Automatic annotation (TrEMBL):
This is TPR-like protein. It comes from the Eukaryota. Keywords: Repeat, TPR repeat. SUPFAM superfamilies: TPR-like. Residues 108-141 are annotated as: Disordered. The keyword Transport does not apply. GO terms for biological process: post-translational protein targeting to endoplasmic reticulum membrane. GO terms for cellular component: membrane; TRC complex. It comes from Suillus plorans. The keyword Cell membrane does not apply. GO terms for molecular function: molecular adaptor activity.
Length: 536
């Protein structure tokens, strides 16, 4: 039986698309593109599939490919960007808005095109304002000279922790200190970047720097994203210079969709080998991670952050499957178990933030998806534990915590969040059950974090909120309060200041402790029993 042609695959994809089976259609169009990668229709059709799946980044990238092959698709690309704000989702930068403006006709604009021009011009102005805000010192929540910064305190604790024997794993000091160390190495490489006037160089400048900046920045964020901070008003400018330098030096992919990169990477691998493809893939994935974190946190666009981090997860999972028999030194660190767990953890947290910004039953970020991803991560961690699949590099306390213990805690947190949010859209009986499940998951999350991590105390407090809403017995509520009260001094030893603390962490904890005191007073007076439900 003969292999299907690109036309036949396109027709099969069209059949799936008409049935609104966008996943099936996307697979067929991708197979067709592998046979005919100069066919603009195939890219345009696949862009429509991405559009239907709310994958705005990939939709725009495929639409751009269609436009490059056939400029007649330029208007279609602009309409796609405008109709679903795909361009804004793809890249909320001044450069992207300028490209959108450049795609429009320069004269004789129709009414629709004039409206698009007005929209893109407004977006360009807003992006420039955001960039200035991102580069202002006020974005950094902490002053570098503050002696109470968690990473400074944690680093001072390490000598004693090293003497603690088996107990050395049970401190968040390892996590934040190593995260800060790696992140600041990346910043140091950013600061080394130089542009030197050179008349014979492209653009009149020659560039010099270290290509390990992105590696250390992303390693630091995956160890603990709380290590992220801006140490100067020009941080974003320096970062942009670094990522452009590395992308150019490694010939990374920066404007191609995931499906295109899969094909291009395999083709390039055959032509140039792993020594060329490995660093290109690393820079590509790490740049997505950084972009996702910057958009999600600095620009307050967690919806865009989710898409960039999801891209990274998808490409990593694909590469691990396609190159599963390739030695780890050839395919690179980004395909290691620990790296993928780190990215998945970041993605889960960003997904939770995206849901919080767009909550409800019709959210573009379904709670069921969050729960499924969290449960899948827990299964993967259980398999790792059962097989004792830890490499020698993973045996230092910081590595074990950051890439084995903390991802499990994140997964439990997401499940707790899922149940707590589901309860808000359920009737009384189901809401009580959901809040009870939320309390259980939050207790598991709290118990997984070290006792001196602020998340241990915070999620104990979240569990107490769920217990109250579920009407669970006072006995369990009081036990959580006793544990929380003991945890607060340990937390404050390291986490006196943090983003969570500035977001009301301490007020929430103290409110629950006061509530527990008042309830236990009523128990002591005989007005309540330990088996009574926690009063609202």
């Amino acid at each position: 039986m003969s292999e299907p042609t690109a036309v036949q695959l396109k027709d099969e994809g069209n059949d799936f698309f008409r049935k609104q089976d966008y996943v099936g259609a996307l697979a067929k169009y991708t197979e067709a593109i592998a046979l005919d990668d100069k066919n603009a229709v195939l890219y345009a059709n696949r862009a429509a599939c991405h559009h239907g799946l709310n994958r705005c980044l990939d939709a725009v990238d495929d639409a751009k490919m269609a436009t490059q092959i056939d400029p007649g698709y330029a208007k279609g690309w602009s309409r796609l960007a405008a109709s679903r704000d795909a361009l804004a989702e793809w890249e909320r930068s001044a450069e992207a808005w300028q490209k959108a403006l450049d795609a429009l006709p320069k004269t004789n604009l129709s009414r629709a095109e004039q409206r698009q021009k007005d929209q893109y011009s407004a977006g360009l102005d807003a992006a420039k304002t955001r960039d200035k805000t991102a580069e202002s010192p006020s974005v950094s929540r902490f002053k570098a000279e503050d002696a109470n910064l968690p990473w400074k305190i944690a680093t001072e604790m390490l000598p004693e922790l090293r003497k603690a024997g088996p107990e050395k794993y049970s401190s968040s000091a390892w996590v934040i200190s190593y995260a800060y160390e790696e992140f600041t190495k990346g910043v140091a490489f950013m600061n080394e970047f130089k542009s030197i006037p050179h008349p014979q160089a492209p653009g009149g400048f020659a560039y010099g720097g270290n290509t390990m900046g992105l590696t250390y920045l992303t390693n630091g964020l995956m160890r603990d994203e709380r290590a992220f901070h801006l140490d100067g008003p020009d941080w974003i400018t320096k970062y942009n210079n670094q990522v452009k330098f590395e992308a150019t030096a490694r010939q990374a992919w920066h404007s191609d969709g995931v499906e295109n990169i899969k094909q291009l990477a395999q083709k390039r691998l055959k032509e140039k080998g792993w020594s060329d493809v490995r660093p290109a893939l690393s820079v590509t994935v790490r740049a997505w991670i950084m972009r996702g974190m910057l958009d999600g946190h600095l620009r307050n666009k967690p919806d865009t952050g989710v898409q960039f981090l999801k891209r990274a997860v998808d490409l990593l999972e694909w590469g691990r499957n396609v190159w599963k028999n390739v030695h780890k030194d050839d395919r690179g660190a980004i395909f290691q178990d620990t790296f993928l767990r780190g990215v998945r953890s970041l993605h889960l947290k960003m997904f939770m933030n995206a849901y919080s910004a767009d909550p409800g039953l019709n959210s573009k970020f379904p709670l069921e998806h969050l729960k499924e991803e969290a449960e899948d991560l827990l299964k993967e961690i259980d398999i790792m534990k059962a097989s004792n699949n830890l490499s020698k590099e993973e045996l230092d306390p910081g590595m074990v915590s950051s890439f084995c213990i903390y991802p499990a805690a994140v997964a439990y947190t997401m499940i707790g969040f899922y149940h707590a949010q589901t309860a808000r859209h359920s009737d009384d009986v189901l809401a009580c059950i959901s809040f009870a499940n939320g309390a259980s998951a939050y207790l598991q999350a709290a118990g997984t974090y070290p006792e001196d991590d602020e998340f241990h105390a915070f999620y104990l407090s979240c569990a107490m909120d769920c217990m109250r809403n579920a009407g669970l017995p006072i006995r369990g509520f009081n036990l959580a309060a006793v544990t929380l009260r003991a945890a607060v001094p340990k937390m404050m030893k390291i986490w006196t200041v943090s983003a969570l603390q500035q977001g009301g962490r301490d007020e929430k904890i103290q409110a629950n402790l006061r509530s527990a005191d008042e309830i236990m007073k009523l128990v002591a007076e005989g007005k309540l029993t330990l088996e009574d439900p926690v009063p609202l």
